[in-house]
Specification:
Blueprint (H helix, E strand, L loop, with lengths): L2 H15 L6 H26 L2 H12 L2 H11 L4 H10 L1
Length: 91
């Protein structure tokens, strides 16, 4: 995987995770999980298509709109997570 593609995947993950109000450790876990999923999709699409840019386009299509993914993750979090986030920010 090229450095450009790797950076694109990281940017996509960051776009999703950054606005979520959760503890740093929880956000790190989210980043790791999302990046793992995106890498798997990319590898699958690259093998199928044989072209990095086309594979990346398929990753974006299959992943969906980052804002929608971010909202979905926020809805799945415990109601306590934003409280922990605020407390972590104050310390």
């Amino acid at each position: 995987m090229s450095e450009t593609i790797s950076c694109e995947l990281l940017r996509l993950v960051e776009t999703v995770v950054r606005p979520i109000r959760a503890r740093h450790s929880r956000k790190r876990q989210m980043r790791d999980e999302l990046l793992g999923h995106l890498n798997a999709i990319y590898d699958e699409e690259l093998q199928r298509l044989g072209d990095e840019q086309q594979a990346m386009a398929q990753v974006r299509r299959r992943f969906g709109e980052p804002a929608a993914v971010s909202r979905e993750i926020r809805r799945s979090l415990s109601w306590r997570e934003p409280i922990h986030y605020v407390l972590e920010q104050q310390s």
